[in-house]
Amino acid sequence: MSRAHIYTRTSTGEQQLGHEAQEAECRALAxxxxxxxxxxxxxxxxxxxxxxxxxxxxRLLHSLxxxxxxxxxxxxxxxxxxxxxxxxxxxxxxxxxxxxTGEVTPExxxxxxxxxxxxxxxxxxxxxxxxxxTKAALAAKKARGERVGMLPLGFTANSEGYLIPxxxxxGKLALVRAWRADGLTLEEIEQKCKAENITARKGxxxxxxxxxxxxxxxxxxxxxxxxxxxxxxxxxxxALHAQGLPLRQIANALSAQGFRNTLGKPLSHGLVxxxxxxxxxxx
Length: 283
Known about the structure:
By secondary structure, the chain is an alpha/beta fold. The protein has three domains: 4-121, Resolvase, N-terminal catalytic domain (Rossmann fold), CATH 3.40.50; 155-215, no CATH class; 231-278, no CATH class. The chain contains ten helices and six strands; from the N terminus they run E-H-E-H-E-H-E-H-E-E-H-H-H-H-H-H.
């Protein structure tokens, strides 16, 4: 008798249905097809990551037997890259198993094959849109002088976007680095983190790649005063503008006083211009 394995996936940018809701949809589909559910796999991963590169999906793939069915809420839970999905599905079929989703009939027909290809194409299109929106949002933040990119280890950002120390993460870093200094391997540290419930920023146990980054010597970061949303910076900027100085001279003067942008670099004339406009100091 065929067994049903439920697989759910969520990523940061996708909040339509969480794991619990996806599982409920999949269980309802399994009940309609009279398939007994023998396992449930939840995974937090980007749709751009091939399913065969995700740890939980790998475990599921290796547990498959001929006749088994992997049930997913939608086709894009498998992934958002058509070629990756096709290769993953071939690997599943080679084990005598198959994929069932709510949008495609379980029968292996030419029509269902075309539907799967169309759904993969739409998922890939949605991924391209997500990336374009993300790129535009980051460009807008950068234009406003706000911080973009990954926060440095041991720091977080406050509501205004300034870097502030994160004592909890700093404690984790110190502990992991102490273990490394004692001669433990990354594999041994990984196991200790799991045993002591030490997690990375996304809530999962840190991978060996993350641990290698944690153990690397910290990169010195330049220090400066708060930037664009600082009242002190804005006041100094407006005062210099009132003296009739050009934007570049204002930027140089502020940088000489120790003001920096969110990356710790000297202020640009473009950033000065945005501050003046925001404060209504054009004229």
